[in-house]
Design goal:
The protein is of the alpha+beta class. The protein has 8 helices and 11 strands.
Length: about 375
């Protein structure tokens, strides 16, 4: 797997050196891009780097400007010859700016944090029913619908790749390809076990049940991101089964791909064409292998991130959806929202996602201090 990111790391000892390096590179890129002799491929690469550095350079300049202004105001306050009224105004501006300065510094530090190489990638979303039988399958369908609605609100494209339905509208498993801007960056913290507490439609006594579904958010990768040797694959074709149209059980259009070194198995039967089913299966296989490689690299760096999904047991939850109380609680950051309807419609999901991203940024900044 290829490495990525900005390649810039915060060194607390020499933060100003980091600033100088960013600004120097930004100026170098600006001068280079002004040259008419650049080849198209190099122009595209340098333009992207320039675009990535532009907001960082702007924040560094804003921070330095604020610091210089703070120093000027301090000197004015300390000047005995200054007009008393001007000294009073300077003091007022000084303390107001001093209060804002930590937030400006934090914005710069966050922008300098190494970026997750997968943040700009599209996503393979996998939702599976866990503990709880039919109610777990219904909840899996609700979660899948929540992400579909959220994708629509974000202007992303949501393509259902596979859906294994139960008889009453639930999903044993559902897989979608979500494409758009910063999809993985927004959804990567959704991976894990989601728990639901509610009275099932089939429950006559009104008793609250607890069920679970697992969510996996995998970066959608291209062939260049993951090398797969054809000799490592076992490809089986068979007749599709279940709901799926007239082609079911008439042609061997379904495809099952087994990656022998890892034991990962992917099956696809939604398309009438064997070729299309194989292409979809390979897409999912690449995503799973890529995520496996990322997890191995994180383990080597002693990263303490939890695995993508647990066993589906109710105890391994990252979030609880309590319908009787109308609340959603994310247990990783102890955040509770009493607006479950808006969360399930995708409208309030941003509130949880933004809080998770902020917590991750704070943890990574703490690791560098």
């Amino acid at each position: 797997m290829r490495s990525g990111g900005r390649g810039l790391r915060i060194d607390p000892v020499s933060i100003e050196e980091n600033f100088n390096r960013v600004l120097a590179r930004f100026a170098e890129l600006r001068d280079t891009l002004a040259s008419p002799a650049l080849e198209p491929e190099r122009l595209a690469a340098l333009s992207k780097e320039y675009s990535d550095l532009e907001p960082i350079a702007a924040e560094i300049e804003a921070l330095r400007s604020a610091r210089a202004e703070l120093e000027d105001l301090g000197q004015m306050m300390a000047d005995p010859a200054a007009d008393p009224e001007m000294r009073g105004l300077a003091e007022e501006e000084y303390y107001a700016l001093k209060e804002r300065l930590p937030e400006i510094e934090r914005r710069v530090q966050v922008l300098l944090l190494p970026r997750d190489e997968a943040d700009e990638k599209n996503v393979i979303l996998e939702v599976r029913a866990g503990t709880g039988g039919e109610e777990a399958a219904l909840f899996a369908a609700d979660l899948f619908s929540m992400y579909q609605k959220y994708a629509g609100l974000q202007g992303w494209r949501f393509e259902i790749m596979e859906a294994s339905e139960t008889g009453i509208g639930g999903y044993k498993e559902a897989v979608a390809n979500i494409t758009g801007r910063n999809v993985y960056a927004r959804l990567k913290f959704e991976s894990g076990v989601h728990r639901v507490q509610r009275v099932p439609e089939t429950e006559a006594s009104g008793r609250i049940h607890t069920s679970a579904a697992t969510v996996a958010v995998l970066p959608d990768v291209e062939e260049v991101d993951v090398e797969i040797d054809e000799k490592d694959l076992r490809i089986d074709v068979y007749r599709a089964s279940g709901a799926g149209g007239q082609h079911v059980n008439k042609t061997e259009s379904a495809v099952r791909i087994t990656h022998l070194p890892t034991g990962i198995v992917v099956a696809q039967q939604d398309e009438k064409s064997q070729h299309k089913n194989k292409a979809k299966a390979m897409k999912i296989l690449r995503a799973r292998l890529y995520e496996q490689q990322r997890a191995a690299q994180q383990a080597e760096r002693a990263a303490d991130r939890r695995s993508q999904v647990g066993s589906g047991d109710r105890s391994e939850r990252i979030r609880t959806y309590n319908f009787p109380q109308g609340r959603v609680t994310d247990h990783r950051i102890n955040l509770t929202l009493y607006k479950i309807d808006k969360v399930m419609s995708g409208e309030a999901l941003d509130e949880i996602i933004d809080a998770l991203i902020a917590e991750d940024e704070a943890a990574r900044l703490a690791d560098l201090s």
